[in-house]
Amino acid sequence: MTEPPDPSLATGDAAKRALAATDRAARIKAIGLMFLALMLFSALDTTAKHLATRAAIPVAEIAWLRFLGQFVLLLVLVPAFGLLTVRQLFTTKRFGWQMVRSVLMASTTVLNFLALQYLRLDQTITIVFLAPLVVALLAGPLLGEWVGWRRMVAILIGFAGILIAVRPGVTDVHPAVLYSLGSMLAYALFMILTRRIAGFDPPLVTLFYSMFVGTLVGGPIALSSWVWPTDALTWLLLLSLGIFGGTGHYLFILAYRLAPASTIAPFLYLQLLSMVGLGWLVFGDVPDGWTMIGSAVVTASGIYLVHREHAVRRAPRSPEAR
Question: Assuming Cys at both sites, which of 10, 42, 180, 231 could form a disulfide with 115, CB separation 3.0 to 4.6 Å?
Answer without folding.
Answer: 180
